[in-house]
Amino acid sequence: MTAAATRHHIVEAADRLFYERGFEATAFADIAAQTGLSRGNFYYHFKTKDEILAAVIALRLERTERLLARWREEAGSPREAIESFSQMLIGNRTEIMRHGCPVGTLCAELAKLDHRALGRATELFYLFRDWLAGQFTALGRRQDAERLALHLLMRSQGIATLATAFRDEDFIRREVEAMNGWLDSECPDTAPLPHP
Amino acid sequence: MTAAATRHHIVEAADRLFYERGFEATAFADIAAQTGLSRGNFYYHFKTKDEILAAVIALRLERTERLLARWREEAGSPREAIESFSQMLIGNRTEIMRHGCPVGTLCAELAKLDHRALGRATELFYLFRDWLAGQFTALGRRQDAERLALHLLMRSQGIATLATAFRDEDFIRREVEAMNGWLDSECPDTAPLPHP
DNA sequence: GTCTATACGGAGATAGAC
DNA sequence: GTCTATCTCCGTATAGAC
Hints:
homodimer, 196 residues, mainly alpha, 0% strand, DNA-binding
């Protein structure tokens, strides 16, 4: 295996563990168990645990950019693109009920740790915000596109947090419905036709 | 100092530190520094760190019950009582921007740790939910009181999470306004009169 | 009740063989 | 590049003096 491949392997395992258990609670031993590598080997690829965190955030940023690009390509309209966002909560409901939103929980943990990487992690939110704002702009809401985008982000975070505490799948579905209803009321001309 | 007083002193310090830094990231040494007690002394009052956590959650449950009772007493109407809830986000904005919501971030951390105390921590959410549902019932919305209550809780969590990541006070104020606007639309007959 | 001293394990990190 | 062995520090928890 090449160095780059091993490195990527480590980052992928860390990515999942940081999400499932949290950054601090994840030990090198956990990553070692996941990857089948020895602890000592990590230090050939990363000098510190913080460097692994930085690589994980970079990976998430790349993936998020690709995801958003795909949503835009596959959507027939900005409205449909936005609904890809809200549908994500349903598609990922199992993981969300167990570990919350990967972005929100990482930022929350880093904020408490007063960790220097918080700013970088917040970039993940900015990606979603700017992408959503772009869709609202395309819907003719250029003036308040950012406000609308942040409102959707806010709702997604609230849904994820409560879903984790309550472990309630119906709650997620109901609130995603309400989110789409809010979209209808804000952008009525884009609302999908009701079923006949 | 009596044993009960010392115990309470420990729990209060742990309460603050668990909120500010998180449960796992808080060490006995931190609590010792806060209280002026020695590490060894803790074990006279609590057998394990988990017992301190249980005591912290119990303290928060008591305090929350008292807070909700006070809100109800001081409010001139159920609608005013509900607005005490949304106003809390503004009153506590500084702490929220630094450490998030004490309830949401604790539940999120315990969920990731797969900690047995998660259920007990979730009781904090249930207190707010049931209290809010009670206000909606008093407003004549008995049928969907719980749904409305969870929606408000959801928004409070989303606001807190984004406020922590973005460190944006204006965002909080704007979303609290939107929250009150949502209240107006759901319970129009209770809406306060617009300023003349 | 509170202290000091200490056990014990696990964390991140390093050194050097292969 | 990857391993094993090891270092050091810090975490929770215990023992026992006062």
